[in-house]
Specification:
elongated, mainly beta
C-alpha cells in the first residue's frame, strides 16, 4: 500500500506541479495526470475510480473526488477519504513530498493509517490551505509551531493521532480558523490564553489529552463559539464565570477532569442556546441544579459522579426539550425526605425525555403515581442504589416505550403489580435486591422482547410461571435468594437464547428434565442450595456453550454422567453436598479448561482420575467422600491392586474397642466379639461435623504440625471447643504410630493427661478428637521465654 501512495501521488502531483496555470498549456495535462493516477491505483474498494466516471469522455472536473478552480478549471484538490473512500484500504506510510502542491486548498486524509510527523515547512508548501483534515491516522511527533503560518486555514482537524507536545502558543495567528480539532492525542501543557484572540472560532475540541492547569477565563471572549469540548484531561480549578457569558455556546463538555466549585455562582447566568452540557466525573459540589432551568434549550444534561447535594428541583419541568437527564453518583435527594419524589412529577412536562439516570443518590422517597404522565418516549429509567421506598405503582405500566427499567438495590416493598405487563417494549427488567414479595405475575410473560429478568434477593414466593417459555429472547434470568417453591417448570429449559440462569438459594424441589438440550446458548447454570432430587440427565452434554455449572447443596442421586466430559468449554463445576454415587467419570480428564472442581461431600467411590485438569486440583475438591482412592496428593489411600487390602482399611470398630476397655474396672478381661462389639460410651462425631467445626481444616485453625500428624482447633455445633489430631497417612509408619497412641490412651488414665472425646476414621482419615486445652501445653509454660510460672503454680 505504501507503494501505491508513493507511485500514485508522484504521477499525479508531479504532473500538476510541472504544469501550473501560469504556463500556457491545455487542461489536458491535468486530465492526463489523473488518468495516470487512475492506472497506478492498486486498491480501490468502492470502485469509484476504477469503475466510476473517470473516463476521457467526461469532463475531469466532474470526476468523483476531483475539485477544480472555477475560473481556469484546473485541479485544485483530491478528496481521498470520502469520494475515493480509501479509508478501508488501510493506507500506510507518510505523506509523499510530491503532494505539497502550492495550488491545493483542501487536503483530506482522514481514516487511514498514515504515519510520520508533519513537516515544519507545511504552511510554506501549502500557503493557500483552507481545510487540513488528517484525523484518524497514526501521525506522531510535535505539532509544528509553524502551523500558525497557515493564515488561510478555516478547518484544522488533527484529532485521533499520536501528536505530542503542547498547543502552539501563537495559535491565535489563525484569525480565520473556525474549527479546531486536536482531541485524542498525547498533548500536554496548558490551554494558551492567547486562544481568546481567535475570534472566528466556532468549534474547539481538545479533549482526551493530558492538558493541565485551569480553564482560562479569556475563553469567554470567543463570542462565536458554538461547541467546546475539554473532556478527559487534567484540568483543575473552577469553571470561570466568563464561560457562561458565551451566549452562542450550544455544546459544553468538561467530563473527566478534576474541576471543582459550585459551577454557577450566580442565578442570573444563563446560556440560552446551550443544548448539551456534560459535567460528569469531576468534583463539582453544591446544588447548581436549582439554576438549571436557566438553560431553556437544554437537550442533554449529565453531571454524574460529582459531589452535588441538595434536592433535585421541580423546576426541571421547565426544560421542554430535555431528552437526557443524568445525575448518577452524587448526594442528591428528594425535596422532602420520605415523601413522593416530586421532580418525577415535574418531568412529565418534558415530553421529549428519553433517558433518566438517577443511580446512587439518597433520594429517600417513593415513586409517585404521576409517573404515568412521563414522556411517552421515555426509554431508559435507571435508578438503582437510590433508597427508593414504597411500592411499584401500577401506573408504571403506562410507559409503553420503556426498554430498560432498573430499580435494583432499593427498599421497594409489596408485590410486582400485574399492570407492569403494559411495558410492551421492555428489554431489561432489574428489580433485584429489594423487599418484593408475592408471586411473579403471569403478565410478565407479555414482554416478548425481554432479554434480562433480574429478581434476585427479594422475598418472592410461589412458582415460576409456565409462560416464561414465551420469552424467546430472554438471555439472563436470575431468581436467586428468594422464597420460591415447587418444581422448576420445563419451560425455562426451552429458552434457546438463554445465557445465564441462576435459581440458587430457594426451595425448588423435584428434578431436572430429561431433555435439557434446547438451551444451546447457555453459559452458566446455578441451581445450588435448593431441594432438587433425582439424577443428572446425560442430555446435559448438549449444552455445548456451558462454562459454569453449580448444582451443589441439593439431593441429587445417581452417578455423574459420563457425557459430562463432552462439555469441552466447562471451567467451573460444583456438585458438592449431594448424594451422588458411582465413580468419577474418566471422561472428565478431557475437560481441558476446567479450573474449579468441587465434588466434596457425596458418596463417590473409586479412583480419582489423574489426567487433564485433575493435576491442578487439591484434596479439597474430593473431601467428604468415603471410598475414594488414588493419588496421594488428594489425601486418599492408594487404590487396591489384585484384591489386596491396605492396612489403612481397618474399620473404626477395631479402634473403638480399646476405648471401651479403658472403662472396665475389673482385672478380668471379658471376651469381646468383633462381630458384635459392646456399646460405645464415647460420642460419635462424623467427618462432616469435624469439617464444619474446623472450617474444612483451615490453616487458620492449625495449632501445631508434626511429622506424623497435625492438630487443629474446632468448635462443635453445641459450642464445645475441641482439638482434632489428624494423622498424616502419607508418612511411612504413621498408621502404626496411630495404633500405638490409641493403645496407650486405652491403658493410661491421669488427671493431667488430655482427655479423648472420640475418634473419626475412614479410608481417607485417622483422627483423635481431644479435649481442647485453651492455655496450651505444660512444655510451653515451663520452657518458653514468653511464659512464666509462679512458685505456687
Amino acid at each position: 500500500m505504501e507503494k501505491f501512495i508513493s507511485l500514485a501521488f508522484h504521477l499525479l502531483l508531479a504532473s500538476l506541479v510541472m504544469f501550473q496555470p501560469a504556463i500556457c498549456s491545455s487542461n489536458f495535462t491535468d486530465q492526463d495526470a489523473l488518468l495516470r493516477f487512475q492506472s497506478a491505483i492498486e486498491v480501490n474498494p468502492m470502485n469509484t475510480i476504477k469503475g466510476g466516471n473517470w473516463t476521457a469522455e467526461a469532463n475531469f472536473c466532474e470526476w468523483i473526488g476531483v475539485v477544480c478552480s472555477n475560473r481556469r478549471q484546473r485541479v485544485m484538490a483530491l478528496d481521498l477519504s470520502h469520494d475515493i473512500t480509501l479509508a478501508k484500504a488501510n493506507l500506510t506510510g507518510s505523506i509523499p513530498p510530491t503532494l505539497f502542491n502550492g495550488s491545493l486548498t483542501d487536503v483530506d486524509f482522514m481514516y487511514n493509517n498514515l504515519s510520520g510527523s508533519l513537516p515544519s515547512d507545511l504552511c510554506s508548501r501549502w500557503p493557500n490551505i483552507r481545510r487540513l483534515l488528517l484525523s484518524y491516522n497514526e501521525f506522531s511527533g510535535m505539532l509544528p509551531e509553524t502551523l500558525t503560518q497557515c493564515k488561510e486555514l478555516l478547518v484544522l482537524s488533527l484529532s485521533h493521532n499520536r501528536f505530542q507536545g503542547s498547543i502552539p502558543r501563537d495559535m491565535d495567528s489563525l484569525q480565520k480558523l473556525q474549527e479546531l480539532y486536536l482531541g485524542s492525542n498525547n498533548l500536554t501543557g496548558m490551554i494558551p490564553r492567547t486562544i481568546s484572540n481567535m475570534s472566528s472560532l466556532r468549534m474547539l475540541y481538545v479533549g482526551i489529552n493530558h492538558i493541565e492547569g485551569d480553564i482560562p477565563s479569556e475563553i469567554g471572549k470567543l463570542v462565536n463559539l458554538n461547541e467546546m469540548s475539554l473532556q478527559n484531561n487534567l484540568l483543575t480549578g473552577e469553571v470561570p464565570e466568563e464561560v457562561f457569558n458565551i451566549s452562542s455556546l450550544q455544546v459544553l463538555s468538561l467530563r473527566g477532569n478534576s474541576l471543582s466549585g459550585s459551577l454557577l455562582p450566580s442565578s442570573e447566568l444563563s446560556l440560552p442556546n446551550l443544548e448539551i452540557l456534560i459535567l460528569s466525573d469531576n468534583g463539582f459540589g453544591g446544588n447548581f441544579l436549582q439554576y438549571i432551568s436557566n438553560f431553556s434549550s437544554l437537550i442533554r444534561f449529565d453531571a454524574g459522579k460529582n459531589q452535588l447535594s441538595g434536592p433535585i428541583p421541580t423546576s426541571l419541568g421547565n426544560l421542554k426539550n430535555l431528552r437526557l437527564f443524568a445525575v448518577a453518583s452524587n448526594q442528591l435527594t428528594g425535596e422532602t425526605d420520605g415523601s413522593e419524589l416530586g421532580f418525577i412529577s415535574a418531568l412529565s412536562n418534558c415530553q421529549s425525555l428519553e433517558i433518566l439516570i438517577l443511580e446512587d443518590n439518597p433520594l429517600r422517597g417513593s415513586i409517585p403515581e404521576s409517573i404515568r404522565n412521563l414522556s411517552s418516549s421515555l426509554q431508559f429509567l435507571f435508578a438503582p442504589y437510590c433508597q427508593i421506598r414504597g411500592h411499584i405503582p401500577g401506573e408504571m405500566g403506562f410507559l409503553k416505550s420503556l426498554t430498560f427499567l432498573e430499580l435494583s438495590d432499593n427498599d421497594i416493598v409489596g408485590n410486582i403489580p400485574s399492570s407492569i405487563g403494559g411495558l410492551e417494549s421492555l428489554q431489561r427488567l432489574h428489580l433485584d435486591n429489594n423487599h418484593l414479595e408475592g408471586p411473579i405475575p403471569n403478565e410478565i410473560c407479555n414482554f416478548t422482547s425481554l432479554g434480562e429478568l433480574l429478581l434476585r434477593q427479594n422475598r418472592i414466593s410461589g412458582s415460576i410461571p409456565n409462560c416464561i417459555g414465551n420469552l424467546s429472547r430472554l438471555q439472563k434470568f436470575t431468581l436467586s435468594s428468594n422464597n420460591m417453591t415447587s418444581v422448576i417448570p420445563v419451560s425455562p429449559w426451552n429458552l434457546e437464547e438463554l445465557i445465564f440462569l441462576n435459581l440458587s438459594l430457594n426451595s425448588f424441589n423435584g428434578g431436572l428434565p430429561l431433555d435439557m438440550g434446547k438451551m444451546r446458548a447457555i453459559n452458566s447454570i446455578d441451581l445450588s442450595w435448593n431441594r432438587l432430587t433425582g439424577a443428572i440427565s446425560s442430555s446435559i452434554q448438549e449444552l455445548k456453550s456451558l462454562s459454569s455449572l453449580n448444582l451443589s447443596r441439593n439431593s441429587f442421586q445417581g452417578s455423574i454422567p459420563q457425557a459430562i466430559g463432552n462439555l469441552k468449554g466447562l471451567d467451573f463445576l460444583d456438585l458438592s453436598y449431594n448424594e451422588l454415587s458411582g465413580a468419577i467419570p474418566k471422561s472428565m480428564e478431557g475437560l481441558t479448561y476446567l479450573q474449579n472442581l468441587n465434588l466434596s461431600f457425596n458418596k463417590l467411590p473409586g479412583e480419582i482420575p489423574n489426567g487433564g485438569p485433575f493435576a491442578n486440583f487439591s484434596a479439597l475438591s474430593f473431601i467428604g467422600n468415603e471410598a475414594l482412592c488414588g493419588n496421594a496428593a488428594f489425601q486418599v489411600p492408594p487404590c487396591k491392586e489384585n484384591g489386596k487390602k491396605s492396612s489403612r482399611d481397618m474399620p473404626l470398630r477395631y479402634y473403638t474397642l480399646w476405648f471401651q476397655l479403658k472403662h472396665q474396672n475389673t482385672g478380668k478381661k471379658a471376651p469381646v466379639s468383633v462381630e458384635n462389639p459392646p456399646r460405645i460410651e464415647h460420642p460419635m462425631i462424623s467427618y462432616r461435623e469435624l469439617c464444619s467445626a474446623t472450617n474444612n481444616f483451615s490453616e487458620s485453625n492449625l495449632l501445631e504440625a508434626g511429622c506424623f500428624s497435625s492438630v487443629c482447633k474446632g468448635t462443635l455445633v453445641i459450642g464445645t471447643d475441641i482439638a482434632i489430631k489428624v494423622l498424616n497417612l502419607h508418612i511411612e509408619g504413621a498408621i502404626k504410630s496411630f495404633d500405638a497412641e490409641c493403645e496407650v490412651f486405652c491403658k493410661i488414665k491421669h488427671r493431667n493427661l488430655v482427655k479423648v472425646i472420640s475418634t473419626c476414621t475412614n479410608t481417607n482419615l485417622r483422627a483423635l478428637v481431644l479435649q481442647y486445652v485453651p492455655h496450651g501445653s505444660l512444655e510451653k509454660w515451663l520452657y518458653s521465654n514468653n511464659y512464666n510460672l509462679g512458685l505456687h503454680q
